[in-house]
Design goal:
D-Maltodextrin-Binding Protein, domain 2; Dipeptide-binding Protein, domain 3; 4-stranded antiparallel sheet; alpha+beta; single chain
Length: 541
């Protein structure tokens, strides 16, 4: 569901540089590179499960938005699949001694899709927009405000300095992400509140139209000549047009693929995808994502999960191995902690605190006073049932939600799964009407943990467990600003153990992004976060 807040870190920052996620890129399917001269143009159709809320990068927060935004916009820096930092809209960059100010030298040959020249004013306008009251909450806003954004200073037309009130050693990495990509200042001002439906960037594709609940159409930017240096070709994109079809049901996406309506289908049913691949009708492209795996964040302030034994019982009641295998076949990888094993600073101790043990789950629930006195399979206490409230968008969880509910029901929980779209589910979270929140966040290091678990973000700010712990806050804050890599790793180990010891999340599986592609699709590859890199894709005859 929701907030698949996908901040990917970049390698190559001058300080606090983690090693790239060990197996992330190796887990992707082998890409075939099609040189630009072999491209045949054409239209690439892609079936997606969820419609974006906005195409304003500064206002974006959801998974489905980032995939589209990366084709419309460029960022100051770019990152290769191996985690190395490269020029983007900036050709050079220099942090100050404590990593609170960053000066960028900008390209001088870039224009936005509306013809506006790219200059330092565009960087200032974009970052000020993200930090403004016009944006209530977004991935970019959390990055800037969590690090005390001060201002963006225009030094001259092609030099800009971004200032923070605190050390921000990861900013160069974050400056490569879509949430901090650069918008046309003219379009921002002209469209105002409607900019999310009228995006204007500098990317390889231009926005054409958005038919609500149906499709989003992009077309090639013929003037694009500033692609990243690690791309398979330079110049305009190979494809003439990209159409994102909004197809919420996995079975519908599969049918659309089989009939040729889409050439790429996101998150297909595992068994069907494997069968198509075995028959030669498709290729499966997969990417084991580092960062926060698929978890259920547990509201620690709302009964019955305000009791730590109840939360622990929920974890112990779920067989992660079986869940991942049943839901995703060989594409599934179980998770047992708040970050995945492919993530830098992963702590084995925190990951080994729980293993499937329904007997122990039952004992803990008995100890907490929850018993099934009437034999109906649901535990009760003081006249109340052991009820769990899960507002969720099934487009994200349809592969596993029934399995997960089955495990919890077997343990005596009454799981109330409420199906709704992302916007409605988010409103329920803000109102406090939830027990569980489905979440994952892709990044090669554990830095999203601050957003998700620091008490400064509790009660509607993204830390949906609402758990307050001084030691956890201190570890997360120090890890976020410390330039010493070993100290950061220790801080994250402390944080992981506090989170798991207090059973704040129910880990399920490492998110293994998967797509099926038609044989005609050439040059498929993933970026560091596991998004298909459309710039180099071509369609063969």
């Amino acid at each position: 569901m929701l907030i698949g807040l996908l901040l990917a870190a970049c390698g190559g920052a001058p300080a606090a540089t983690e090693a790239p996620a060990v197996d992330a890129t190796e887990a992707s399917a082998e890409a075939t590179e099609a040189p630009a001269e072999e491209a045949s143009g054409g239209t690439l159709t892609i079936g997606l499960p969820v419609e974006p809320e906005t195409l304003d990068p500064g206002d974006a927060v959801y998974v489905q938005e980032q995939f589209i935004l990366m084709n419309l916009f460029d960022s100051l820096l770019s990152i290769s699949p191996d985690g190395e930092l490269h020029p983007g809209l900036a050709t050079a960059w220099e942090p100050n001694a404590d990593y609170s100010e960053f000066t960028f030298t900008l390209r001088q040959d870039v224009t936005f899709h509306d013809g506006t020249p790219f200059t330092a004013e565009a960087v200032k306008a974009s970052f000020d927009h993200i930090n403004s009251d016009a944006v209530l909450e977004s991935g970019g806003k959390s990055l800037l405000q969590d690090h005390s954004y001060v201002e963006t200073v225009v030094v001259d037309d092609y030099t800009v300095t971004v200032k923070f009130g605190a050390s921000y050693p990861l900013f160069l990495r974050d400056a490569s992400r879509q949430w901090l990509s650069i918008s046309s200042p003219v379009a921002l001002e002209a469209s105002g509140a409607d900019y999310g439906r009228n995006p204007v960037g500098t990317g390889p594709f231009k926005f054409v139209q958005w038919d609500a609940q149906s499709q989003i159409v992009l077309e090639r930017n013929p003037d694009y000549n500033w692609g990243p240096e690690f791309a398979a070709h330079q110049g305009p994109a190979n494809l003439e047009q990209v159409v994102f079809r909004i197809l919420p049901e996995a079975a519908t996406r599969l049918t659309a693929f089989e009939t040729g309506e889409v050439l790429i289908a996101s998150e297909p049913p595992a068994l069907d995808a494997i069968a198509l691949a075995n028959s030669g009708a498709a290729a499966i492209q997969t990417f084991a994502q580092p960062g926060v795996p698929a978890i259920l964040m547990i509201n620690a302030t709302k009964a019955p999960t305000d009791n730590v034994n109840v939360r622990k019982a929920m974890i112990l009641a779920v067989n992660q191995e079986e869940l991942a295998q049943t839901a995703f076949q060989e594409l599934g990888l179980p998770a047992t902690s708040v970050i995945s094993p492919t993530t830098w600073a992963y702590d084995e101790g925190a990951a080994s605190l729980y293993s499937y043990n329904p007997e122990e789950a039952a004992r803990l629930l008995d100890e907490a006073g929850w018993v099934d006195a009437d034999g109906d399979g649901v535990r009760e206490k003081d006249g109340e049932t052991l009820t769990i409230d899960w507002p969720d968008n099934p487009a994200w969880s349809e592969a596993f939600n029934e399995l997960l509910i089955g495990y919890l029901s077997e343990a005596g929980f009454d799981v109330q799964y409420r199906s709704m779209d992302d916007g409605a589910a988010y409103e329920e979270l803000l109102a406090g009407n939830y027990t569980l929140v489905y979440m994952y966040w892709t990044r090669p290091d554990p830095s999203p943990l601050r957003y998700l678990f620091h008490s400064e973000n509790a009660n509607g700010g993204g830390a949906w467990t609402n758990f307050v712990n001084e030691d956890l806050d201190n570890a997360l804050a120090d890890a976020d600003t410390n330039t010493d890599e070993a100290a950061r790793a220790q801080d994250y180990a402390v944080a992981q153990n506090i989170i798991m010891e207090n059973a704040l999340v129910l880990p399920m599986f490492t998110v293994n992004t998967s797509y099926i592609t038609a044989p005609a699709v050439q040059g498929f590859s993933f970026d560091l976060e596991g998004y298909p890199y459309l710039y180099d894709i071509s369609i063969s005859e």
